[in-house]
Amino acid sequence: MKYWLMKSEPSAFSIDDLIACENSTDHWDGIRNYQARNFMRDTMEIGDKVLFYHSNCDEVGVVGLAEVASEAYQDFTAFDESCKYYDPKSDPDKPRWVMVDIKFVEKFDRTVTLKEIKQIDELSNMKLVQRGMRLSIQPVEEFEYDFIINLAKGVL
77 lies in which domain range? Predict the structure, then answer.
């Protein structure tokens, strides 16, 4: 099992939007960065754990948990000319972009903010706080995942 942090702007797709989906599951589309795509395509597996992170909002941080609910598959939004994720260079026979489904697990009572995470020595090696790491999907160590859950639940 692996652990991930997946970022979404709540104005585009929030954890509440995920909760409202049928079976609280939806596809994670629109990834147009090769490294993030490679994580989904080559490394993610069903059952992997996800820290759901709200970005570009008033309170940036981890708001809850999800899990990977499918293997990677072709991102159909790349072929839809009316979609903002349309990619005219993507070929349906050899798709450039993929997506996975994620399933809601839990919404935290409070956001574990980026500011808070940056102040904790035990989390100083998280990719999230490293300079230049802006990927919307990034690997997380198991102890970092557990540490953030404990922060959210007031255990630490």
Answer: 3-152
Report pLDDT for 94: 86
Per-residue pLDDT tens over the stretch 49-72: 999 999 999 999 999 999 999 999
Cβ neighbours for 22, distance < 8 A, ≥ 6 positions apart: none
Q: What is the count of structural domains for the chain? A: 1
Which strand (E) or helix (H) includes residue 105?
strand 98-113
User: Which residue in 142, 120, 117 sits closest to 128, CA to CA?
Assistant: 117
Alpha-carbon distance of 155 to 44, in angstroms, equals 29
> Which residues, in sequence order, are CB contacts of 84 under 8 Å at separation 6+?
30
- What pLDDT sits at residue 47? 98
| Residue 156 confidence class, pLDDT cut points 50, 70, 90 | confident
Angle, CA of 146, 151 and 155, to the nearest 5°: 90
CATH of the domain at 46: 3.10.590.10
